[in-house]
Design goal:
The complex is a heterodimer of chains A (110) and B (114).
Chain A: E1 4-5, E2 10-14, E3 19-25, E4 32-38, E5 45-51, E6 56-59, E7 62-67, E8 72-77, E9 86-93, E10 99-100, E11 104-109
Parallel strand pairs in A: 2-11
Antiparallel strand pairs in A: 1-3, 3-8, 4-5, 4-9, 6-7, 7-8, 9-10, 9-11
Chain B: E1 5-7, E2 10-13, E3 19-24, E4 31-37, E5 44-50, E6 53-57, E7 65-68, E8 75-79, E9 88-95, E10 104-105, E11 109-113
Chain lengths: 110, 114
């Protein structure tokens, strides 16, 4: 039972444009959502999070949107930079363990 | 650097051998988590500690796996009688355990079982 899904295995965008990464979940008990960035052979690096009581959270170039009724969240990166190229994981929790999606490989082309 | 640290970073072993990994969490973080990641998948939860108490274990944690956090600081994860299917990246994370509880990950230990 895949409770968190990232349906796009890969995404390619041009430098300076917007990157939009999507994530869907099924468990209505999840109340905190996070995005992590991962380079090969390294651990995930925390990027940004959102509580279920909010619908938007911004941090610099990164914005996360949460649509609770649709059980959907998205990460917007604008403007995208070549250094943003990595695998992005969304994760969700209801208080302890994180449940991760499968990841989306983002490639930002110069 | 006061982030989460893991040792070793890489481990190659033969099938049937025992291995032990260590994780040092961020100082004063009460919660410590272990995850496993295989190629093309997101990390999967294994177990977590609140201080020295092991509060939750995944069904992925077979009886060949054991984790400890004896003094509520560092933790060890031992795999006995390793199998080729144990080959994965083992990730440790820590958090405060309060409020909106963000988990911060270490660099991971890459295990290869031959």
């Amino acid at each position: 039972d895949q409770q968190v899904k990232q349906n796009s295995p890969s995404l390619s965008v041009q430098e300076g444009r917007i990157s939009i990464l999507n994530c869907d979940y099924t468990n209505s008990m999840f109340d905190y959502f996070l995005w992590y960035k991962k380079y090969p052979a390294e651990g995930p690096t925390f990027l940004i999070s959102i509580s279920s009581i909010k619908d938007k959270n911004e941090d610099g170039r990164f914005t996360v949107f949460l649509n609770k009724s649709a059980k959907h969240l998205s990460l917007h990166i604008v403007p995208s930079q070549p250094g943003d190229s990595a695998v992005y994981f969304c994760a969700a929790t209801s208080g302890s363990r994180l449940t991760f999606g499968e990841g989306t490989q983002l490639t930002v082309n110069p | 650097d006061t982030g989460v640290s893991q040792d070793p970073r890489h481990k190659i072993t033969k099938r049937g051998q025992n291995v032990t990994f260590r994780c040092d969490p961020i100082s004063e973080h009460n919660r410590l988590y272990w995850y496993r990641q295989t190629l093309g998948q997101g990390p999967e939860f294994l177990t977590y500690f609140q201080n020295e108490a092991q509060l939750e274990k995944s069904r992925l944690l077979s009886d060949r796996f054991s984790a400890e956090r004896p003094k509520g600081s560092f933790s060890t994860l031992e795999i006995q009688r390793t199998e080729q299917g144990d080959s994965a990246m083992y990730l440790c994370a820590s958090s405060t355990g309060t409020g909106t509880d963000t988990q911060y990950f270490g660099p991971g230990t890459r295990l290869t079982v031959l």
